[in-house]
Amino acid sequence: MANGVLMAAVFFLVRIAVMPVYYSRMFSVYGTEAFYRVTLGGRSAWIFSSICLDIMNVMWMHKIARGCYKVLRSSRRPKPEIQENGKTD
């Protein structure tokens, strides 16, 4: 369980929390001379791929957070007693 919680926290820190910093840097470069030295295809690929990958990262983070929440919630429930024949009450 600790491994899953740590994975969720690290995923958030390295994939989601850095998005504002990345896009602020991207915005600061947008429209500069260096930006226009790159071909139109390169600029489009840079922007489009960043947006697509970040959408996927947010979707994955949502799934990871839901799974983490389910695991943490289920760990608080009392475990059902198992009888000798393997059945629960």
Morphology: rod-shaped
Query: What do the pLDDT scores average to?
Result: 90
Head-to-tail CA distance between termini: 26 Å
The beta-strand count equals: 0
Q: What structural class is derived from the secondary structure elements?
A: mainly alpha
Main beta sheet strand tally, sense and closure? none
The helix tally amounts to 4
Q: Give unreliable regions as ranges.
A: none
H/E element sequence: HHHH
**Fraction of residues in helix:** over 70%
Strand content: under 5%
Please give the radius of gyration in angstroms.
Answer: 22 Å
Describe this structure in words.
The protein is mostly helical and 89 residues long. Helices cover 74% and strands 0% of the residues. The chain has four helices and no strands. It is rod-shaped. The two termini are 26 Å apart. The model has no long low-confidence stretch (mean pLDDT 90).
Descriptive terms for the model:
single chain; 89 residues; mainly alpha
Secondary structure layout plus pairing:
Blueprint: H1 2-16, H2 19-29, H3 33-37, H4 40-74
Describe the structure concisely for a colleague.
By secondary structure, the chain is mainly alpha-helical.
